[in-house]
Structure formats: C-alpha cells, structure tokens
Amino acid sequence: xxxxxxxxxxxxxxxxxxxxxxxxxxxxxxxxxxxxxxxxxxxxxxxxxxxxxxxxxxxxxxxxxxxxxx
Length: 70
Hints:
By secondary structure, the chain is an alpha+beta fold. It has one helix and seven strands; from the N terminus they run βββββββα. It has one domain (5-67). It has one helix at residues 53-67; strands at 5-9, 20-28, 30-31, 34-35, 37-38, 41-42, 44-50. The strands form three sheets. It has a three-stranded antiparallel β-sheet, with helices on one face. The longest helix is centred in the C-terminal third of the chain and has 15 residues, at 53-67. It is flat. The protein starts with a strand and ends with a helix. The relative contact order is 0.28.
C-alpha cells in the first residue's frame, strides 16, 4: 500500500520560516492541465507546514496510520 501523506522539502506557501510541508499525495496541484512542479519537486494539496523534518515525519506517519484503519 502506498502512503497517502508525504513530505515536500520546503514551504509550498513560500513562507521563509517553514522548512517542510506535509502533503496529500492523492491531490496534485494542477496548473494549466499539468501537475505543478518546482525545483523541490511536485506540489500536492498541503496539509500543514513544519519547522523541522522530524515534526513533518511524525505528522505524516500519524496521518498514514489513520488511513490504514479507514
């Protein structure tokens, strides 16, 4: 089974204080019919932004664990 939630390196909202974004991998950001991508990777619907990778991983892991019970 593929994880639904992942981590994007950087702030998808372009806020300088956030280093990571937890995203929903089932909801790609589509612009002009194409999956939007920048130098950090493809964009998906953001769930939250975090200051450190550890927090982002904990949130993504918890959300993915909840998906296995759905």
